[in-house]
Specification:
Layout (H helix, E strand, L loop, with lengths): L2 H32 L13 E3 L9 E15 L4 E13 L2 E2 L5 E10 L2 E9 L5 E14 L5 E8 L6 E20 L1
Parallel strand pairs: 1-2
Antiparallel strand pairs: 2-3, 3-9, 4-9, 5-8, 5-9, 6-7, 6-9
């Protein structure tokens, strides 16, 4: 071996290692971009059903509060359309530690009055002391798509929680919710 061929080999190995590292970074970025970190069991609305007798352990369920109302999910675009008089869309119960800080975020558009609530439950299934916490006060949606971010602290006596999305007197298109 000559010093020149050894240098060329090291250069080729360095280039190959750089390409592999770049490829890995691009792949990792795609993975985290497609599956954003969230505590929700169904951030893409793959499982949306009308409330029956039992609470689901995954997904979302909706309730007719004031008819007529309708809920339509489009999982491919991570959206759900809430339409009607008044409709609740609740997440499946989530295990959240008591007295911890969290943030809920979602995109929303439409012409409904829209609000976001947190429902909290004790271990035995009874409502926590602050069972219903308004995270985003009911207000008419403005034209365009808006991102709503709300921070909150879970009640000290709770063990399970649900996110509730409320739409009244119109249509709300909700996109890609996340909870951290």
């Amino acid at each position: 071996r000559t010093p020149t061929s050894s240098l060329g080999s090291r250069t080729q190995c360095g280039l190959l290692a750089g390409r592999l590292a770049l490829g890995l970074l691009i792949w990792l970025h795609g993975q985290t971009g497609d599956t954003a970190e969230t505590l929700l069991t169904d951030p893409t609305f793959r499982s949306v059903h009308e409330l029956q007798l039992d609470l689901p352990d995954r997904g979302w369920y909706w309730q007719r509060i004031q008819t007529p109302c309708q809920v339509t999910a489009t999982p491919d675009s991570s959206t759900v359309k809430l339409r009607g008089g008044k409709v609740f869309l609740d997440s499946a119960p989530l295990s959240l530690a008591p007295a911890t800080q969290h943030q809920f975020q979602t995109g929303v558009s439409g012409n409904a009055t829209f609000s976001i609530e947190l429902l909290s439950w004790k271990r035995g299934g009874l409502p926590a002391a602050h069972h219903r916490m308004v995270l985003h006060k009911a207000a008419p949606l403005l034209p365009g798509t808006h991102t709503i971010r709300v921070g909150f602290r879970t009640p000290a006596d709770m063990s399970r929680a649900q996110i509730r999305l409320v739409a009244a007197q119109g249509t709300a298109l909700v996109h890609a919710p996340s909870l951290s």
